[in-house]
Amino acid sequence: MLLDTGDRLLPARMLNAFAYCPRLFHLEHVDGLFADNEDTVEGRSVHRAVDEKEDLLPDPPDTAGGDEPLVTARSVTLSSTALQLIAKIDLLEAEGGVATPVDTKKGKAPDVPEGAYEPERVQLCAQGLLLREHGYAAEHGALYYAGSRKRVRVDFDEALVRRTLELTAQALAAAEQENPPPPLADSPKCPRCSLVGICLPDEVNLLRAEDEGQQTEPRRLVPAWDDAVAVYVVGRAFASARAGRRSPPARRAGPSRTCGSRTSPTLRCSAPTRSRPRPCRPSARQRCP
Ligand code: SF4
Question: Distances from the Cα of 19 to the Cαs of 24, 205, 233, in angstroms?
Fold first, then answer.
């Protein structure tokens, strides 16, 4: 079990997981299960530079409102038994008793009215609450999205603080449970979840429904047939078309006459020809012309 049950401190990143999916939180952070996918590997890569050094929290000034210079610190770990939270702050910017936590995220900033999804906002807010506990004023933080190099401001308003404390209490209570909660039902979060192969959400939900005497159809997450073949079109200014649907137009360098040969059951060659059209003679490798 990764959760520090002695002091009952909940890492802020686990709060992020709980807000995303309570079952993910339990599997990953209570049962200690972990699996990589593209997102987790990319996330580690983005954090490698951030985690290079660890700083201590600078002391807040005795009085606010002076001309204190901006102080920055990286990978600052803070905890509070009163809040039952612990967090590592990627980047801390402090100026005159006011601190701003900055959390680095992989990928692009989402196009949502709040500027960021709830799991990231509550994780950042937990960092802000910890800074307040350590004597700083922290009214907002920032999420830095490495994919779009965009910094999104997140205000620690009353609603977000209340939600953060609420989720913290729920996560701590969930950590005491022996079994994980049931999977999300038909959720778009599951295909991107790194633990989908361990959680088996649709399979578990199917068996649960059958136990309750319900008939249900499992969601198809992978193609029913995998017998499609790749067709490589090599050459200058080629274009290809599929039966009933054209691919985006390719650059054409010569006269737009097509030889019309079929190189595969579904692809028709439309290579531009310099003289009169010559029929293609597709080889065993279906290379044309
Ligand atoms: S696969 Fe879905 S239900 Fe399972 S842990 Fe991930 S998000 Fe939660």
Answer: 9, 20, 46
Residue ranges covered by each domain of the chain? 10-175, 229-289
Number of CB atoms found within 10 A of residue 224's CB: 5
Among 194, 201, 192, which Cα is nearest to 35's?
194
Entry pTM: 0.73
CA–centroid distance, 193 to ligand 1, in Å, is: 6
117 DSSP assignment: -
Asked: is 10-175 a CATH 3.40.1350.10 domain? The reply is: no
For the stretch 129-148, pLDDT in tens is 999 999 999 999 999 999 99
CA of 31 relative to ligand 1 center, distance in Å: 14
Q: How far is CA 207 from CA 107, 194, 212, 213, in A?
A: 35, 22, 9, 10
> Which residue's entry shows tokens 């509070």?
80
